[in-house]
Design brief:
The complex is a heterodimer. Chain A has helices spanning 5-21, 77-93, 120-124, 127-142, 211-223, 242-255, 258-262, 323-329, 356-361, 411-416; strands at 26-42, 45-63, 66-72, 147-166, 171-187, 194-202, 234-240, 283-286, 307-312, 315-316, 337-338, 341-342, 346-349, 365-373, 377-378, 383-394, 397-410, 418-421, 431-432, 436-444. By secondary structure, chain A is α+β, with helices and mostly antiparallel strands. The chains are: A alpha+beta, B alpha+beta. Strand 2 of chain A pairs parallel with strand 3 of chain B.
């Protein structure tokens, strides 16, 4: 990968210049070069092994305030130049958009090296070690006799070099790595199966959880669902485990993007500066956390990454914007440009001080949400309705597992009704949060 | 779509002759694999986005690459590249070959024979890739304007158009060489309504493996815009969904999502081979009501889920999955078929060249029954009517959900108040037994559906007639 790096940068800069001479007022070009390794093992044998390298180029041209995009996995210069010429021609056919345009060149630059996005240890792992890790994880899980079937274990790693060149003079380049290890399991007989999985995903190999730890969590998460009951329909407090807070935060993210705001596709439109949740709630988007999965030196507009407080003690402080949405809403870009849209950096709910255990102990009756099934999220209204798996709590203790129920409620009311936030925040994924207890949701069952 | 006089795509787009392909297959088998395959793909894609009353952007994409797969027993080695120089292709073959780790078989792969058939299921009179961008923009503007004009409570509209043309060729160590060129078009509209600070959204769309004449003859952009707006406005007046168990009636068409989730996925052969599916030990056994017969048919002309050959080169066939409540078939790909000694059905599909094929659905539906739809509705005293659906999910135990975007309450056999979104949940072997009325009005849902499995997205269609389910849990709030 390394020896080809200058080529990527040259390619991007050459294409930006070509776009300008082809009639574009402005242009940007991104090129990435990735290497992927993925091994799936099951029942002690390799099931599938994938190893590949691939490149992709994306470009944007703006002419007379009209925008056109193109992308290609064919990096042959003839193809790319044809795409640039086509894009300029297509832009001419569109409508002018007063907000179209590249972001101005930012004076600030974030030092990519200090962000610790690249781990040579990931790049240096040999296939045998990677396969060995997957095999060890599954083996450790299958040692537990309650486990009756395996979806297999996977080790995956990626190395990616990305370049962005813009006609405003911006050129940025960085390398990043990812590695992940996980296992999926079933317990119970065929007609009473329960399933779950656990995986660890990091940029640095040394941060990856051990095969034994991953296996232990996967087993525990699976077997705790055995012999579930269906409960009566009722309104009760719901405790979101961190994996569930993660999707709730993902849904919140979709509701605080500048794009959703100008499209009126979010119930949080028009709420800037207003209280949208209770005092316990602080939500942050941070692109600068060293070594984390959602960290980058700059976004796809070439804007430097930053930390943005989205909700501060219940008050909505910022929408997350790319340069386009920011201009449209007369706000500032928050460094969240992701291709043609808005994407999260590390978007998380700040940790509270209570332990997961104490949150359960303080609940007289309620549902600990451990998994969901289906989509059922509507950002226009904030409405939530999803299939749910959980653990029923009686008098501060887990009584029995619950399945084949749904949970429903509204994100706006959930944010107002957060009763406790756990201290167990971890960055397993770019969008994350700790345990959360919500005052009331409808659990529909019998 | 396959022009008889043009050079075959493996030569035209990939610069690889049958002799090159055969030598690469030989290399792929050099470590002792029992099967090797080269999948080549060249895809072009056009996209138009209209919002805020303007054509905001257009996009064009080109994707080219090939994936090489080597199978040895139950192990698969896979590599892909988008650098098509013979040198890189050979290197990719060696990467995939490493899975086998043995001695090369004595027999070199047989000479490749092009077995592409001329007949096509893609019904195209005005090919999208030859139409002007202005013509396509016209379709988008028409849908947009229709949604906006539908009602003064429509606050925002978005309309998206996309088309793609995918040239694919498959060569394998059994001597197969085959190619196909698949068109796809799609036009969708999202409308957001607003009244007294309350907002709702509606969605509609269509397309398939068709040409642009579809938007004149079958489904007009105007109707797409109006239906999206109609749903958005109707939802403004909708009440919160009920919560708890109750009788359900499913509208024809859209509700095929239920069959897709509850039955289709768990009859994909890989889940049976690995014994993770609740159905794995139930072949030939009764799992549902005798009223339930289910097919998956990739051969329906022009449908989104249809194809001339699957992504392993197998001609597909209409596959009986459940007959009168009894499991009769599985959706097979080559790997599961070899290991289970089954019969190929032509359901090996992949998202693109960077993915290995897996068994997938195409167009899944429940066959029509005898009941008049109005009699089914009339039979329910108090229940929930599912008018439109937005998706679903299933796990291997058979627990599944589907999300209703618009429903109605049924009171004394009639539809009364419209009801907002809710998720329904059930277990398939329980719900299949509770399907107690099946209508005569088989319809298919919108030609816009996509199914995800193992991180791979493929286009699908679902269908069903009006159905009654004796009892199912509705996840509302009231």
């Amino acid at each position: 990968m390394k020896k080809e790096a200058p080529t990527l940068r040259d390619l991007a800069e050459t294409l930006v210049a070509f776009a300008r001479t082809s009639g574009a007022d402005e242009a940007d070009v991104s090129v990435s070069d990735g290497y992927e390794f993925n091994v799936d093992v099951r029942k002690g044998r390799i099931e599938q092994l994938i190893e590949a390298g691939s490149r992709v180029c994306g470009l944007r041209v703006i002419k007379d305030k009209k925008t056109a995009f193109a992308s290609s996995s064919d990096l042959e210069m003839g193809t790319l130049k044809r795409l640039v010429r086509n894009a300029v021609r297509r832009a001419e056919l569109g409508n002018p958009d007063e907000f179209a345009g590249l972001a101005p060149l930012s004076k600030e630059r974030v030092d990519a090296v200090a962000l610790k996005l690249y781990d040579p240890a990931v790049a240096g792992l040999d296939s045998k070690t990677k396969i060995g890790l997957a095999l060890a994880t599954e083996r450790a899980a299958l040692r537990d006799k309650r486990i009756t079937n395996s979806y297999g274990a996977t080790f995956a790693s990626n190395e990616i070099r990305s370049v962005l060149a813009m006609s405003n003079g911006f050129v940025g380049e960085y390398e990043q790595t990812y590695c992940g290890l996980g296992v999926g399991l079933q317990a119970g007989d065929t007609d009473n199966r329960v399933e779950d999985s656990w995986s660890s995903s990091k940029r640095h190999f040394k941060d990856l959880e051990s095969p034994e730890a991953i296996a232990r969590k996967a087993v525990e998460r699976t077997v705790r669902q055995l012999k579930p009951r269906k409960v009566k329909t009722q309104n009760v407090p719901v405790i979101f485990e961190p994996t569930q807070t993660a999707w709730l935060m993902g849904f919140l993210f979709g509701c605080v993007t500048g794009t959703a705001v100008y499209q009126k596709a979010t119930f949080l439109e028009g709420k800037l500066g207003r209280r949208v949740g209770n005092e316990r709630l602080t939500v942050v988007d941070d692109g600068l956390l060293p070594g984390e999965l959602g960290t980058h030196p700059f976004d796809s507009d070439g804007m430097p990454s930053r930390r943005t407080v989205v909700i501060e003690r219940g008050v909505l402080k910022n929408y997350l914007c790319n340069y386009y949405a920011a201009r449209k809403l007369r706000l500032k870009s928050t460094g969240n440009a992701d291709g043609n849209g808005v994407g999260p950096n590390n978007f998380y709910l700040e940790a509270g001080t209570v332990s997961h255990k104490d949150i359960i102990a303080g609940t007289k009756r309620g549902l600990i949400l451990i998994r969901t099934l289906g989509h059922g999220l509507n950002s226009v209204t904030g409405d939530i309705s999803r299939g749910a798996f959980g653990l029923w709590v009686e008098d501060g203790e887990v009584a029995y597992p619950v399945s084949e129920v749904t949970i429903s409620g509204n994100l706006g009311r959930i944010l107002e009704g957060i009763e406790a936030i756990g201290s167990d925040l971890e960055f397993h994924s770019p969008v994350t949060g700790p345990t959360v207890k919500v005052a009331e949701m409808t659990v529909a069952g019998e | 779509m396959n022009k008889p006089n043009a050079p075959p795509p493996y030569v035209d787009h990939f610069g690889l002759s049958p002799a090159d392909l055969r030598s690469v297959l030989g290399l792929a088998l050099s470590s002792g694999g029992d099967f090797a395959e080269i999948f080549m793909e060249y895809r072009t894609y056009d996209f138009i986005n209209m919002e805020e009353d303007i054509i905001k952007e257009t996009a064009e994409a080109v994707s080219i690459g090939l994936g090489i797969r080597v199978i040895r027993g139950d192990r698969t080695g896979f590599g892909y590249t988008n650098d098509l120089s013979l040198d890189k292709v050979r290197k990719t073959a060696q990467t995939a070959a490493a899975i086998a780790r043995g001695k090369a078989g004595a027999v070199p792969p047989p000479a490749l024979r092009d077995r592409t058939r001329a007949a096509s299921r893609y019904v195209v009179r005005r090919p999208a890739h030859k139409a002007s961008l202005s013509a396509k923009m016209g379709l988008v503007r028409e849908a947009y304007a229709a949604a906006q004009a539908f009602d003064k409570r429509i606050a925002k509209v978005k309309a998206h158009y996309s088309d793609s043309l995918k040239h694919m060729c498959i060569a394998n160590s059994e001597g197969l060489l085959v190619h196909d060129t698949r068109p796809m078009v799609k036009l969708v509209c999202v409308a957001i309504s607003e009244k007294d600070g309350k907002r709702e959204s509606g969605y509609w769309g269509g397309g398939g493996r068709v040409g642009l004449e579809y938007f004149r003859d079958t489904l007009t952009p105007r109707r797409i815009g109006e239906e999206a707006a109609r749903e958005a406005v109707l939802l403004l007046e909708a009440a919160d969904a009920p919560a708890g168990e109750m009788p359900i009636v499913l509208a024809p068409g859209h509700s095929g999502v239920l069959i897709h989730e509850a039955v289709g996925h768990l009859l994909e052969a890989d889940f049976t081979r690995k014994k993770t599916s609740v159905f794995w030990n139930k072949m030939g056994k009764k799992v549902g009501s005798p009223l339930v017969t289910i097919y998956d048919d990739p051969t329906i002309p022009s449908f989104r889920g249809s194809y001339n050959i699957d992504d392993e080169g197998t001609p597909p066939r209409k596959t009986l999955l459940i007959e009168k409540g009894v499991i009769r078939g599985l959706l097979q790909d080559k790997l599961s078929c070899r290991l289970m000694r089954g019969r190929l059905t032509g359901h090996g599909r992949r998202q693109d060249y960077s993915c290995a094929p897996i068994p997938r659905m195409a167009n899944t539906y429940i066959a029509a029954g005898d009941d008049a739809p109005e009699d089914i509705l009339r039979s329910v005293k108090k229940g929930f009517y599912v008018a439109s659906l937005s998706g679903g999910q299933v796990e291997d135990s058979g627990k599944f959900t589907f999300s209703v975007s618009l429903g109605y309450l049924i009171e004394d056999g009639k539809l009364t108040a419209p009801v907002k979104q809710a998720t329904l949940i059930g277990t398939n072997i329980d719900i299949l037994k509770k399907i107690d009325r099946v209508g005569s009005d088989l319809e298919f849902g919108l030609q816009t559906g996509t199914c995800s499995k193992d991180g791979q997205d493929v286009p699908v269609t679902d269908g069903c007639p009006t159905l009654r389910i004796e009892k199912m849990t509705v996840g509302g709030t009231s």
